[in-house]
Amino acid sequence: MSEEKQQVSRRQFLNYTLTGVGGFMAAGMLVPMLRMAVDPVLQESAAGDFANVSLAVEDITNEPQRVDWKIKQVDGWYESEVTKSAWVYKDDNGDIIALSPICKHLGCVVSWEGSEDYPNQFYCPCHDGRYYKSGVNVPNTPPTAALDVYEQKVENGMLYLGNAQPQGEA
Ligand code: FES
Predict the structure, then answer these.
(1) In what residue span(s) does the Rieske domain sit (predicted)?
(2) What pLDDT score does 23 carry?
(3) d(Cα 33, Cα 148) in Å, to the nearest integer?
(4) pLDDT averaged over consecutive 10-residue blocks of the chain (170 residues)?
(5) Which helix (H) or strand (E) holds 122?
(6) Residues with a CB atom less than 6 Å from ligand 1
(7) Is this model's pTM higher than 0.85 or not?
(8) Domain enclosing residue 16, as ranges
């Protein structure tokens, strides 16, 4: 009985080696390309970051004042600067309240005492939407939910605002 020789020819050896090295190099090139293509989609949004809205806490009164600030927004591969706004005041307990000015009916912008007919309320001119000072919607007006309220923190006496979150309904 003859023993079968399992020899690898020089040609086969080169084939295996070059295929292995070639595959390794291709993977090395593909991984960074894939990362570049997919990474912006997977990256966490910076929306959760807090922004300094250039308002000192000592300058906040119990009268709502509007503050505007800019944030850098990354949407996939598109980077843009977005202006955000809030109505900020201190409530009776001295707590800072920062309300979104976006009407919960169809998204117009509300103003504090925007109508002479409704003092001490936020007013939306689009369809006569109204909100109490707390941001809660006035029943029987078009908005069906309270104004969103911003996450907030205070650092070195300055107000920082984060995301606007929904609050309770009337
Ligand atoms: S959008 Fe504000 S009341 Fe309609």
Answers:
(1) 88-161
(2) 78
(3) 40
(4) 64 82 80 64 57 97 97 86 96 97 98 97 98 97 97 96 80
(5) strand 122-124
(6) 103, 105-108, 124, 126-127, 129, 142-143
(7) no
(8) 1-43
* Centre of ligand 1 from the C-alpha of residue 110, in Å: 8
Give the CB-side neighbour count of residue 161, counting CA atoms within 13 A.
Answer: 28
Is residue 170 in some structural domain?
Answer: no
State whether 28 and 90 are in the same domain.
Answer: no
Q: Please report whether residue 157 resides in a domain.
A: yes
The span from the CA of 163 to the CA of 73, in Å, is 13
Q: Is residue 3 part of a domain?
A: yes
The answer to whether residues 82 and 38 belong to one domain is no
Query: Is the domain of 31 the same as that of 76?
Result: no
Mutation choice for ligand 1 from 100, 102, 104, 106, CB with most ligand atoms inside 8 A: 106
Q: Report how far residue 8's alpha carbon sits from residue 133's, in angstroms, rounded to the nearest whole number.
A: 85
Task: State whether 67 and 19 are in the same domain.
Answer: no
Q: Which atom of ligand 1 is nearest to the CA of 142?
A: 3
